Amino acid sequence: MKTLIIAEAGVNHNGDVNIAKKLCLEAKEAGADVVKFQTWITEQIITREVKQAEYQSENTGVSQSQFDMLKQLELTFDEFKQVKQYCDEIGIIFASTADERDSLDFLVELGIPFIKIGSGEIGNIPYLRYVGSKGLPIILSTGMSTLADVEMSISALREGGAKDISILHCTTNYPCPYDTVNLNAMQTLERAFGLQVGYSDHTIGIEIPIAAVTMGARIIEKHFTLDKNMDGPDHLASTEPEEFKRMVDAIRNVEAALGSGVKNPSGSEKNISKVILKKIVAKRNIQAGCVISEEDICTKRSEDGISAKYWDIVVGSKAIRDFSVEEGIII
User: Fold this and answer.
1) What distance in Å separates the CA atoms of residue 20 and residue 275, rounded to the nearest whole number?
2) pLDDT tens digit string along 164-193?
3) Closest by alpha carbon to 143, among 80, 73, 55?
4) What is the C-alpha to C-alpha distance for residues 131 and 136, in angstroms, rounded to an integer?
5) What is the pTM of this model?
6) Cα→Cα distances 119→99, 180, 226, 287, Å
7) Distance CA 39, CA 116 (A)
């Protein structure tokens, strides 16, 4: 099964629709399946007094309220329509995370293929029930939460009518230190809920999402930017296009390498085995009709003869014809 790779453009457009379109094109060229943004009406999601998260103030170098920061990063619905149309033109899936009902209604009408729920909505029971009522596949991020929080949130989605839910393990920190990633928790989520799991990554570099795929992640979300040095809260913990492409290529290679899980020789191995695996050959001349003993035969790489795995069958059998030294034994 192919891993769904999401380029999380998020707010890395810095409030500029032209930068948003450029992010879409670069994500497409880097091999992403989806480019995803965040859609909100600032007045509906936050009060004016809330302080910035520590990482936001550190990454931006600006001391301001979250309200003011988000207002500067907000794109209008009309601008998102332009971005969606551009994605359709260049052939990449458009998605966006809605943070309140009006934005969710807009995105559903716009034609998003799934609803992505950010970690900030964990435990937001009325909103999660409303999301569940939309009848679309849902991808739920689970940063800042316990297993009980995730269970409560999934229940709310199902109460609303949700049928198709995937869960992303996530650690909400930008950038996320390696020792707080806890990738094993992704498998805990899979065992606990029996749902498809994935991983939303905020680490520096590309090793961790690649590792997540080897552990069963079917969805990878990775923050994406044109330039890590741009102003804004999330650029520093994002990947630039070339790095993102290396991640995509590595994930596709890992997928190919994981295979079916059935232990059988590959097609190329079958050809190689003909000249590598040992066969049973005559150690000395053997006459037809003689009972073959262990002293008569040995195992060597050979162009002919039967496999060494049939040793116990050959020993004690009668030679069907004469065999000369190093001639492959057949029975």
Assistant:
1) 57
2) 999 999 999 989 999 999 999 999 999 999
3) 55
4) 9
5) 0.89
6) 10, 16, 24, 79
7) 11
- Rounded distance, CA 27 to CA 244, Å? 8
pLDDT for 55:
66
Two tokens, residue 74: 């907000």
Q: What is the end-to-end Cα distance of the chain in Å, rounded?
A: 44
Question: What is the C-alpha to C-alpha distance for residues 186 and 199, in angstroms, rounded to an integer?
Answer: 7
Distance CA 39, CA 100 (A): 9
Q: Find residue 300's DSSP bridge partners.
A: 279
pLDDT digit string (tens) for 6-65?
Answer: 999 999 999 999 999 999 999 999 999 999 999 999 999 999 988 877 666 666 667 778
Give the largest Cα separation in the chain, rounded: 99
Structure tokens belonging to residue 112: 């998003």
Q: What are residue 10's DSSP bridge partners? A: 37
With vertex at residue 243, the alpha carbon angle to CA 241 and CA 247, rounded to the nearest 5 degrees, is 110
